[in-house]
Specification:
The protein is of the alpha+beta class. The protein has a domain at 66-139. Helices cover 28% and strands 26% of the residues. It has helices at 2-5, 43-58, 77-89, 115-132, 163-166, 177-182; strands at 12-22, 28-37, 96-99, 135-138, 169-174, 184-192, 203-208, 213-219. It has a 4-stranded antiparallel sheet. Strands 1-2 form a two-stranded antiparallel sheet. Strand 7 and strand 8 form a beta hairpin. The protein is globular and about 55 Å long. It starts with a helix and ends with a strand. 15% of the residues are buried.
Length: 220
């Protein structure tokens, strides 16, 4: 609702990006507009913003979004498949399945331990996209070495490098301390199937987390 209403939850001054581009020195420059939010976001304003989005973009009375919540390490990939099958029986077919996040799923596979359990989980996540013909999105941690690097590469995997073999694409989120202060994130392809790409070519993105939107303006 914060993102839909484009307003912070509580009164505060927020810095909203209005332009992003490269300076002559090659550095990325972001211009921001200060928005002074005077009042707390009310449920009435949030509902009004939601109805506006439903009318202008969704253009349907039916929900495009479903959420299934579970405690850490209690949901397996097979359980996710069962949830999706139940939704499909209710005539609700997903185009995108987002899992937050893969490495805390239930990985109790008989006969497998350690890294083999991680590998099996990522294999089964890949199978979800093949079974349901949908985009499957999840997140994963990097290794400790990534904290000191400007750009995340294939070397910065955690637990098991075979994760890289199962994904169609993997995007790295790169942020230095200075970039964090300026609200800039650099995104790069770590892995991308069937297409040429450069690991060190990043798209620079400016967002505003106060309105729950990490990607408002971008440039190469």
């Amino acid at each position: 609702m914060v993102r839909t209403a484009k307003q912070s939850l509580y009164p505060k001054k927020i810095k909203y990006p209005i332009r992003i581009g490269k300076k002559g020195s090659g550095n990325t420059e972001v211009r921001r507009k200060i928005k002074d939010i005077k009042n707390k976001l009310s449920w009435r304003d949030a509902k009004r913003a939601c109805k506006k989005i439903m009318k202008s973009r969704i253009k349907s009375k039916d929900s495009y979004f479903r959420l299934s919540c579970h405690p850490n390490s209690t949901l397996s990939v097979r359980s996710i498949q069962s949830v999706l099958q139940n939704w499909i029986r209710d005539d609700w077919v997903p185009d995108i399945v987002i899992i937050d996040y893969a490495d805390i799923l239930d990985m109790n596979y008989q006969g497998l331990e350690g890294r083999d359990r991680i590998n099996e989980t990522w294999k089964r996540l890949r199978s979800l996209s093949q079974i349901f013909h949908c985009l499957v999105v999840t997140g994963s941690q990097t290794d400790a070495g990534a904290y000191k690097k400007e750009v995340i590469t294939r070397d910065n995997f955690s637990e098991d490098k075979r994760k890289l073999a199962h994904v169609t694409g993997m995007i790295g989120l790169n942020v230095t301390e200075k970039e964090k202060e300026r609200g800039i994130t650099r995104l790069n392809w770590v892995v991308l199937r069937e297409k040429a790409f450069g690991v060190y070519k990043c798209v620079h993105v400016a967002g505003c987390l106060d309105v729950a939107n990490p990607a408002i303006k971008s440039c190469w």
